[in-house]
Write a structure and sequence with these properties.
about 30% strand; globular; two-stranded antiparallel sheet; about 140 residues; alpha+beta; 7 strands
Length: about 140
């Protein structure tokens, strides 16, 4: 495998939101955030791979492009994990949707180009990597944030 800097794959972003906020998520619509944690499932198949995509998500976008860019204006990036070389975002979104601990805060978030209900999930308590690995049936590599 190439070095992990430019490898494509699937990633999870763990975000923390400390306040309630009303957000307009582009053309998708309105969303009200709640204090707690959010997990976003995404894939990186373009130039630079996962690390380039995570680097983008570490910044607050001046001109939001993806739905997650809007949420980043009120939620801080806590952690990121990935499966290098795997395209399993739809499976992960499905598995997260089956979790009793996860809620789906906005239908269509990050999933307007697929059949998934959403790629964003909210949690009252901070998800732990080992629990996520078990839930997703996948070993997760940490990504530098």
């Amino acid at each position: 495998m190439k070095d992990n800097i430019s490898v494509h794959g699937t990633y999870l972003l763990l975000l923390e939101c400390n306040n309630e906020a009303e957000l307009s998520i582009g053309k998708l619509g309105e969303m009200v955030t709640e204090p707690g944690f959010y997990l976003y499932v995404g894939s990186a198949c373009g130039p630079g791979g996962i690390q380039a995509r995570i680097n983008h998500h570490m910044q607050i976008a001046v001109r939001p492009h993806w739905h997650i860019d809007y949420l980043r204006t009120v939620a801080g990036l806590v952690n990121a994990w990935c499966a290098y070389g795997s395209r399993c975002e739809h499976e992960w979104a499905y598995r997260l949707s089956q979790s009793e601990a996860a809620k789906e805060p906005l239908k269509g978030f990050g999933s307007t180009d697929c059949d998934c209900t959403t790629h964003l999930f909210s949690f009252k308590r901070k998800p732990i990597k080992a629990e996520l690995e078990k839930m997703l049936n996948n070993k997760l590599a940490s990504v530098k944030v």
